[in-house]
Prior knowledge:
The protein has helices spanning 4-10, 49-82, 92-99, 103-123. Helix content is 56%, strand content 0%. The chain starts with a helix and ends with a helix. The longest helix is centred in the middle third of the chain and has 34 residues, at 49-82.
Amino acid sequence: xxxxxxxxxxxxxxxxxxxxxxxxxxxxxxxxxxxxxxxxxxxxxxxxxxxxxxxxxxxxxxxxxxxxxxxxxxxxxxxxxxxxxxxxxxxxxxxxxxxxxxxxxxxxxxxxxxxxxxxxxxxx
Length: 124
């Protein structure tokens, strides 16, 4: 909030000159932020190889399932963007450029996405 002295002097009214605020002087040097050791789901702290295998396998399967689901969402989005009923429909080349795909892969993803959207259209 502005200082009342500064406001009075800005408005041209009679008052004392505005005070300038200065940062507080540091009496110590702040410690440099040391980077923390990189941790990956605490796998590096597991000493038992059997437990490490179990946990890392569990994570790998979860990431694989997440990647597959994300790919399905990419395909649905590509199909929706390429839908000829849209006034702003994109070509496969445009979608490829946006998603950093090849045009052939974009065409396949659009077709795959249309297949994923089919059951939804029958339900509605």
